[in-house]
Amino acid sequence: MPSLYRPPPTFADASAADAGLLDAVTAGAARLTPAQGLELFHRMPLVELGRLADARCRAIHGDAIRTYVIDRNINYTNVCTAKCTFCAFRRDAEDHDAYTLEHGRLYEKIEELVGIGGTQVLMQGGMNPALPLEWYTTLLRGIKERFAGANGGRGVHVHGFSPPEFIEFVRFFDPPGATLFDKVLSVIRPLREAGLDSVPGGGGEIFAAPVRRKIGLGKCDAESWLTVMKAAHSLGMFTSATMMFGHIEGYADRVHHMATVREWQDRAMRDGGSEGGPGGHYKAFISWPFQRENTPLGRVRDWGDRPEELEPGALFPGDAVATLDGDGDARSHPEFGRRVRRAGAVEYLRTQAISRLMLDNVYSIGASWVTMGPHIGQVALSFGANDMGSVMMEENVVSAAGTTYCLNEPVLCRLIREAGFTPAQRDNAYDLLRVHDASRAGEAGYCPDLAVTDWSAHRAKRLHAERPAAGEAAPVQVTVTAGAK
Ligand code: SF4
Description:
Layout: H1 19-26, H2 34-43, H3 46-61, E1 65-69, E2 71-74, E3 83-84, H4 103-115, E4 120-123, H5 133-146, H6 150-153, E5 157-160, H7 163-173, H8 180-194, H9 209-215, E6 216-217, H10 222-234, E7 239-245, H11 251-271, E8 282-289, H12 317-321, H13 345-358, E9 364-366, H14 369-372, H15 374-380, E10 387-390, H16 409-418, E11 422-426, E12 432-435
Parallel strand pairs: 1-10, 1-11, 2-4, 4-5, 7-8, 8-9
Antiparallel strand pairs: 3-6, 11-12
Helix pairs in contact: 1-3, 2-11, 2-13, 3-13, 5-8, 7-8, 7-10, 8-10, 10-11
The site of iron/sulfur cluster (SF4) has 11 residues, from strand 3.
């Protein structure tokens, strides 16, 4: 009978040999090469990685404040032309639980968001060929008109439509343009004019082609993903970049992904805007581990289930295929794509810390408490993350894959404060809206965590889930307010 014991990974301490380089990296005076980034994955112990990433984070963001945003994830449709193997959210149009939300229902959701002090809507869908461009432009204009007075007259920021959606828009709408970049511009321009403010980095997954071809069936390739963001940047828009890891990829794939974001960020910073104004760029990088439940990829066996996979020298198939240029040969290992190496808390924190060290030109690193849970999210603030992301008043994608963590503003602030920082609400540009310094406790709108007098009775509940979870009769509809008990 095979032993259930899994020997922990061992890492030789690289800090002594590389102390000079790593000091320079944490100070922002040197840049890690991809090979050096890969070395960190293989050699650097967790705690040392955390120390370095925390030092780098403090050099950029200071010692005092860590941020969050109040926004709402709205998944306007789950009908999707792609069939990503890691996705539990998508449906075909004829499925009984396929949906597309009416504009009126979307406005109601934003009304609820504004009601709890929200500033931003994150709008992403499946890629639904039934929706014409006018469906989107009408919706965006409607949001801007209806909520022009929200947030003290600043309105509601629309962070929407990830790069794979734009690539499908190009296919669906056949806009004018000689190149993909021109065609994307022809789609983004009217959406921007109608009210789209920034573009989220959904669909980044892993850029390396061998991995992407296996897991992102029907989803755009990395070059197209990056071209969309380049077009958005040329119009002066901010974007974010993401990475989903802990599946079939090798460590070199993660490093290649980070180095690719860094390289295209350099270009965005260099090129500026194409229309006379300042250019945009990637504001943030967020990474999270693959969530398994209800997904085809989740049924793939874990690496290490078989005794021979625990033998010294046995190489995870993803590592056998991965190369730092993202151009590995999928035939390098017969089991590539047939084994997953799932990431737990240690792997998550290591990866996030390395992203902070690699991405010297990206301002924010976001913690993913949505996938890792609130308490790992809290620890992530000491492993290179400066931002806790959003309260999660609605979430439909990760929860479909079995992960259903949920926080409200008081809990989010408490987590940040207990981690040793002052919580602050930010906007999409990472400007601070309210700094919850304890000296302001008792003032309206400040320090919602310090207003809670009985945490034993305090519960954060999801405001809404678009579809019922298995066994539930109907979508959850509860109201969450700051300071609620
Ligand atoms: S991850 Fe996005 S693009 Fe892929 S199948 Fe799911 S909804 Fe579609």
